[in-house]
Amino acid sequence: MKQFSLNILPISTLLLSMLLAPAYAAQSPIKITSEVHEIIEVLDDQGKPQEKIIAAEEITPGDRILFSTSFTNKGEKASDNVVITNPIPAHTRYLANTAKGEHCIITFSVDGGRAWGDAKTLKVRQKDGKYRAATAADYTHIRWKYNQALQPSEKNSISFQTILL
Which residues have CB under 8 Å from 51's CB, separation 6+? Predict the structure, then answer.
């Protein structure tokens, strides 16, 4: 059995936090599958740095983590209301501009998922009562709204990256 020191976070902890978010999908014809990978930098044949996605068995502070979710319509009818919400996992910080999803409107929350907005318009209330523009470090959740009808058997995916704190 693998043991982890206090500065290494088992990837199962991050995956569990991600999998709990779309639990409501169990009553839907939409099948959701989530994966967690680590992104590392390697040198190509010319010595240029390239990103490589690898299995995330152990991660340590400073490691980049890729969260991917695929969704498939297992029903017999098109689904025109596909919305997936993921929390930013504990002990991680969202990396700006890494939320991806073809045909998706992507919004963020800075208050635990109560209110949503795009990255350019979100505001955070400071201790002095004044507001400032939200940064990626303020995000608590990401939401993807698929803006087309997901046809039967059609599959799509979304993703985002974080860094382990």
Answer: 39, 40, 41, 42
